[in-house]
Amino acid sequence: MAWKLPYTSSIKDMPFLFAEMRKTAQLLCEGNTRDDIIKLSMKSNIYQLEKEKRRRDLPLRMLKRLGTIDMPLLHILADGRDDDAKLIAFLALIKSDRLLFEFMREVYADKFQTGQMEISDKDFFDFIERKAQSSDTVSGWTSNNLARIRNTYKNILCEAGLAKRSGKSLLIQKPICDQQIYNLVGGENDIFAKAMLLEV
């Protein structure tokens, strides 16, 4: 689970990447194995990447994210409506990234539940400062690294349909989710779904 993972800033180099996550989900649903997908990336360049290292690293990251969700959710990501698929892609992302999950729970959902719809840069940096007090990893990050993470979070939330820009701030957007998604994201996904779907 995300809260057992180490903190990492790698999200700034591998952001939402919805199209790549969807393509990977489609390949998995077609019966391709992990090794098949890595080979397709390396030999056929299915993700259309210039650098060989990126052709190796990207499918590994997509597979890691998608390994956090089960097959019914994977099928929605592969073949569902874009809005639904983006929610599932975001769920996979927060299940594989501890810092983003904690941001969603401690800032995004908390703001919404207290009637505040705007997230400022200060909110992000206050959140990071709290994490730095209890984590040597986070406390060692440079200001440039933190700015890149903040900007990546903003982009991801907007791409996923969970926020929209308002100057330098973000306005929280409660996602519209059909009953099928609600039914599928319960159980072990419940704590993540509540942060994402703004459920109490």
From TrEMBL:
InterPro entries: BrxA (IPR014948), BrxA_sf (IPR023137). Pfam families: BrxA. This is Inner membrane protein.
